[in-house]
């Protein structure tokens, strides 16, 4: 297995072979979840105890089992801990259960198929993005053999092996392999041998690229772990101080009062007593980190996840598909995203090509050109479709809205006819006509399919082809052209041509390709027409359309014969064949006459440009990671507003070695990075252990384009640092021709060097690796299967829902979680630290200041509903303003609302409040008596006054934090306070205290204390003194330390009185230098297959019975 794999079979026919394949695949289940029946309990507990708070309470439980130091029963910790672990485990199990993907999946070696020469058409959309059919080239019709091939690896474009049959060896390569993730098209049947199975491990090439499923934890979880350590150290410090105080007190006073306060027999000295009291206070003060924290966090996350699931504005009616929060642990992370990594095909686009406009002989044809004038006066008027009913062979699905083009065709315009004739001849499309008049085109690229379909509807119908002829129905008349040569497309030539002989015996060359190339090959007489056409191409480019220029040349017969001889010699050459053929092509592809240009719309999903523009305003950077070609990816980037015409520069990295890539990366954006004086170099030199790169501000607005080959070098060693520095300063980044593994590597690179939250979004199996690698993975349930969605954290059907997911749900979730944590820590600090002050007046005896039942109910009942109401329903602004002002999203990216600094503020506020809550009640009842002269400064009365004042203070505090009041909020906030008094009278009632005197010991305290004026004076003073600094801070902060969000909030508050004007649409500016909108997702090599005749079915149907003979 380390070096190669041997596969051997002996079967009498293909039927048992298929049965054998079927048998193996029955249990061939793909698991994309991280748990199974055997590892769930240990793995889940391991993950949960990575939360230090859970580990802290486990240690606390063991301490409570020691009677010498425990002042609380052990079950007060073990029961809540079990509840927390159980609830979290059930939630994790439910989240994980949806990530099972059953199915028969394997890589298969093609043996035979229904097509001529055993070709098989496959759609590789899930592997490399674009929808392309590729042929396999292998025919086998035998019953036994042996295959030796490479061991499983992640190289999607490479496969090596040897087939041994009847003593002969046959080489195997990538063309013979059907990869998992491919979809077989236009092929009735095929037989194959399973090579890489998933049944015994992740052997398939696609799964080798998918990466491992990992447990994703939010930045807030990591921060909480750090804060728990801080709290633990603070707790230890307080316990140490109190233990020292206890030792001093026992040594100076307690030692002499042993007749009244006898020491236990296991306490020989004050030092030992101090050590035991240290652990007693450690248990008493454990509410500094309440165990209910994580339960509350999970409930809040679950509630915010339900909001996503219930959001009707993220429901896609055509597919009956709602948005899904497939995990409940990452909601607040949605409000902190800085980088979005997106696939192209099926994510930004619909992968549907539509012939939208064209320019023919200087005339502009298309919907917007025809309606330019009346669009301004009648925006909402629908334009009628062109009626193609006169053409019986027209495609009923085709739509066009400019009638002038049809009229030009019907009038017999020579240039229009020649233009569409070129489109109907210059292609590699295959035609199938199973039913008379019902043509089905099999296009190697969707671009070609759209062009040939357009020609078909305008009256130039490509009917069928052989290896030597092409039949076209021109305006109802069938004409057969002799195919003399196909000058195939490649990425360097950026064009393809065909040479054909017309029925009139004229030799014609038709060419289509990139305008940047064809402009140099035109006849000088076309200069004016070229300039006009280039203006039209600029218009097409601004609209984000994919363009091709179309030209022709009439050839002299003798010239063609001489050229054909050179062409044959180049084809048979054994050395430098590609170069020689390219030179021969250039001899004939010159002095061409320009016909016009096509503009195809690679239909974007609805709302994509607006969504990208909105995300840009929110300071979210967009990177497109695609397996598609560079031209296509760049074209879509302009259409989606990732790139803009007015950008200061576009940098292309296309080096073929380390040195070139390094130089391109440094020279492009930051030439000073070569110098030792560069601030970042100084920073990294001074702190070599720091992997985080500080933010750098570019001196302009730039875009970066890099292909997969250059990226392979850039992701190695120190080049990675240069890449991330350059790329992160760009407004948009396009990485094209990438493998799935490279997508994950790019995401991991940004995570490693930048302290940011990343989000990856895609719809195909080739996106699974980056979805798993990013902090947040979003799957689109599109045309490329369900694997991206099944591996995602969130899923929906349209890219445009991303802005709502982030700017509305994400921002609300982040704000709510920050408010929750700030308030939760504050209320528990204020609650717990009262014990610290009380210790100085109780001989440091580890005596609690509150009633035991109040300690039990404080987090569970009295303060749970208000904080949940705040965390589930609060909105600083509504969804309309959240989308209107994307800049409100920025604080989450910098984590401004809850961080270490904010935590320290909570701690200081809690210490101050606890000080007030202890000394104000003590001062009000000190040496005080009732109206009847009885003493009121007893322990139980003091305890009741302190805990009641505490509840009033924390209730008023949460009322100040709430910005969006609903009926539920009022019920939760004020109802909890009222419920406290109801419980108070019940727990301190005469009947309950007389029935269980050992459990309920505060007999009559509520009745006797609540009518004291000193108690209400204590409550009023405590509330005023605790809340007044908060009000002052909230008032002064926007005045003296304003941030951008404060200014926006002022605008929003002002607009409630004076509504803002509707947003104005800014017109796109023309760039000083144009970019080519050329894009063509064609692959090299298909032309040779056509001329060889291997992919052409006989026009006479034949029975393929030989395949079923024994």
Automatic annotation (TrEMBL):
Cofactor requirement: Mg(2+)
Membrane topology, as annotated: Multi-pass membrane protein
Reaction it catalyzes: ATP + H2O + phospholipidSide 1 = ADP + phosphate + phospholipidSide 2
Keyword Transcription regulation assigned: no
Localization terms from the record: Membrane
Record-annotated P-type ATPase C-terminal domain positions: 791-1042
InterPro entries: ATPase_P-typ_cyto_dom_N, ATPase_P-typ_P_site, ATPase_P-typ_TM_dom_sf, HAD-like_sf, HAD_sf, P-type_ATPase_IV, P-type_ATPase_N, P_typ_ATPase
Name of protein: Phospholipid-transporting ATPase
Species per Swiss-Prot/TrEMBL record: Panthera leo (Lion)
Classification of source organism: Eukaryota, Metazoa, Chordata, Craniata, Vertebrata
């Amino acid at each position: 297995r380390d070096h190669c794999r041997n596969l051997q079979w002996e079967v009498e026919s293909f039927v048992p072979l298929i049965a054998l394949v079927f048998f193996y695949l029955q249990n061939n289940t793909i698991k994309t979840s991280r748990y199974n029946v055997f590892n769930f309990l240990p793995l889940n507990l391991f993950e949960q105890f990575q939360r230090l708070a859970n580990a802290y309470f486990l240690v606390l439980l063991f301490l409570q089992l020691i009677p010498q130091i425990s002042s609380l029963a052990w079950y007060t910790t073990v029961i809540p801990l079990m509840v927390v672990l159980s609830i979290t485990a059930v939630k994790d199990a439910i989240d994980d259960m949806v990530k099972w993907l059953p199915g028969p999946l394997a890589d298969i070696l093609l043996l035979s198929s229904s097509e001529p020469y055993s070709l098989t058409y496959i759609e590789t959309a899930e592997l490399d993005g674009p929808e392309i059919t590729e042929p396999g080239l292998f025919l086998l019709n035998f019953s036994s053999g042996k295959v030796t091939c490479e061991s499983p690896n992640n190289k999607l474009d490479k496969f090596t092996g040897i087939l041994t049959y009847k003593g002969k060896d046959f080489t195997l390569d990538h063309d013979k392999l059907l990869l998992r993730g491919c979809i077989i098209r236009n092929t009735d049947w095929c037989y194959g041998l399973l090579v890489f199975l998933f049944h015994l491990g992740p052997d398939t090439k696609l799964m080798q690229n998918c990466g491992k499923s990992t447990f994703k934890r939010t930045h807030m979880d990591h921060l909480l772990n750090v804060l728990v350590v801080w709290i633990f150290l603070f707790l230890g410090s307080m316990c140490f101080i109190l233990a020292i105080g206890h030792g001093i007190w026992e040594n100076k006073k307690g030692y002499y009062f042993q007749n009244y306060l006898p020491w236990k027999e296991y306490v020989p000295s004050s030092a030992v007593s101090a050590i035991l009291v240290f652990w007693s206070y450690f248990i008493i003060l454990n509410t500094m980190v309440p165990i209910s924290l994580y339960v509350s966090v999970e409930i809040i996350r679950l509630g915010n996840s339900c909001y996503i699931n219930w959001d009707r504005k993220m429901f896609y009616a055509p597919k009956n598909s709602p948005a899904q929060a497939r995990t409940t642990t990452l909601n607040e992370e949605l409000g902190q995203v800085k980088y979005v990594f997106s696939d192209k095909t099926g994510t930004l686009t619909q992968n549907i090509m539509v012939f939208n406009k064209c320019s023919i002989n200087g005339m502009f044809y298309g919907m917007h050109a025809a309606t330019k004038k009346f669009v301004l006066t009648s925006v909402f008027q629908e334009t009628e479709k062109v009626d193609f009913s006169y053409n019986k062979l027209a495609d009923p699905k085709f739509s066009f809205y400019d009638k002038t083009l049809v009229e030009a065709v019907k009038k017999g315009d020579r240039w229009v006819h020649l233009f569409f004739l070129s489109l109907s001849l210059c292609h590699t499309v295959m035609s199938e006509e199973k039913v008379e008049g019902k043509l089905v085109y099999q296009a190697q690229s969707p671009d070609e399919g759209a062009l040939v379909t357009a020609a078909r509807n305008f009256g130039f119908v490509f009917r069928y082809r052989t290896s030597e002829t092409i039949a076209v129905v021109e305006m109802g008349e069938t004409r057969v052209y002799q195919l003399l040569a196909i000058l195939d497309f490649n990425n360097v030539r950026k064009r393809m041509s065909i040479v054909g002989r017309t029925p009139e015996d004229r030799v014609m060359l038709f060419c289509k390709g990139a305008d940047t190339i064809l402009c140099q090959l035109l006849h000088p007489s076309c200069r004016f027409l070229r300039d006009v056409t280039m203006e039209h191409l600029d218009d097409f480019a601004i609209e984000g359309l994919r363009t091709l220029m179309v030209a022709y040349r009439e050839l002299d017969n003798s010239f063609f014969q001489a050229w054909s001889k050179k062409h044959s010699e180049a084809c048979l050459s054994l050395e430098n064949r590609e170069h020689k053929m390219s030179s021969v092509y250039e001899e004939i592809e010159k002095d061409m006459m320009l016909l016009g240009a096509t503009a195809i719309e690679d239909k974007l999903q609805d709302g994509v440009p607006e969504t990208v523009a909105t995300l840009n305003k929110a300071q979210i950077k967009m990177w497109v990671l695609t397996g598609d070609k560079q031209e296509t990816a760049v074209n879509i980037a302009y259409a989606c507003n990732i790139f803009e015409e007015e950008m200061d520069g576009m940098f292309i990295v296309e080096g073929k070695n380390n040195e070139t890539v390094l130089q391109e990366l440094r020279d492009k954006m930051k030439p000073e990075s070569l110098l030792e004086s560069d601030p970042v170099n100084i920073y990294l030199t001074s702190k070599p252990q720091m992997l985080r790169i500080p933010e750098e501000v570019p001196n302009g607005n730039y875009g970066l384009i890099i292909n997969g080959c250059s990226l392979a070098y850039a992701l190695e060693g120190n080049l990675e640092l240069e890449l991330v520095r350059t790329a992160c300063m760009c407004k948009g980044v396009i990485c094209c021709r990438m493998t799935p593994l490279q997508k994950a590597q790019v995401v991991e690179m940004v995570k490693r060097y930048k302290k940011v939250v990343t989000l990856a979004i895609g719809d195909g199996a080739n996106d699974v690796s980056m979805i798993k690698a990013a902090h947040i993975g979003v799957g689109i349930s599109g045309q490329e299967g369900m694997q991206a969605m099944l591996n995602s954290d969130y899923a929906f059907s349209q890219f445009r829902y991303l802005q709502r997911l982030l700017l509305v749900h994400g921002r609300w979730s982040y704000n709510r979680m920050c408010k929750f944590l700030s308030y939760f820590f504050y209320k528990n600090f204020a609650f717990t630290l009262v014990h610290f002050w009380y210790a100085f007046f109780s001989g440091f005896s580890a005596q609690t200041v509150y009633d035991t039942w109040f300690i039990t109910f404080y987090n569970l009942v009295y303060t749970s509903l208000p904080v949940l109401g705040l965390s589930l329903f609060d909105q600083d602004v509504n969804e309309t303003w959240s989308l209107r002002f994307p800049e409100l999203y920025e604080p989450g990216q910098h984590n401004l609302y809850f961080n270490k600094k904010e935590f320290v503020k909570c701690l200081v506020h809690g210490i101050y409040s606890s000080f007030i809550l202890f000394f104000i009640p003590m001062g009000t009842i000190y040496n005080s008596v009732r109206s009847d002269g009885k003493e009121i400064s007893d322990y139980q009365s003091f305890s009741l006054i302190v805990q009641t004042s505490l509840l009033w203070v924390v209730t008023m505090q949460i009322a100040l934090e709430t910005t969006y009041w609903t009926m539920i909020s009022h019920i939760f906030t004020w109802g909890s306070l009222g419920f406290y008094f109801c419980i108070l009278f019940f727990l301190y009632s005469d009947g309950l205290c007389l029935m269980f005197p050992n459990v309920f010991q505060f007999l009559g305290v509520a009745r006797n204390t609540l009518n004291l004026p000193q108690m209400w004076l204590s409550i009023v003073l405590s509330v005023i003194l605790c809340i007044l600094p908060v009000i002052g801070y909230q008032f002064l902060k926007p005045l003296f330390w304003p941030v951008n969000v404060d200014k926006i909030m002022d605008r929003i508050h002002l607009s409630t009185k004076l509504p803002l004007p509707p947003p104005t649409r800014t017109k796109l500016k023309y760039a000083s230098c144009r970019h080519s909108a050329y894009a063509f997702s064609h692959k090299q090599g298909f032309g040779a297959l056509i001329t060889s005749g291997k992919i052409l079915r006989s026009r006479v149907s034949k029975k393929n019975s030989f395949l079923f003979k024994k």
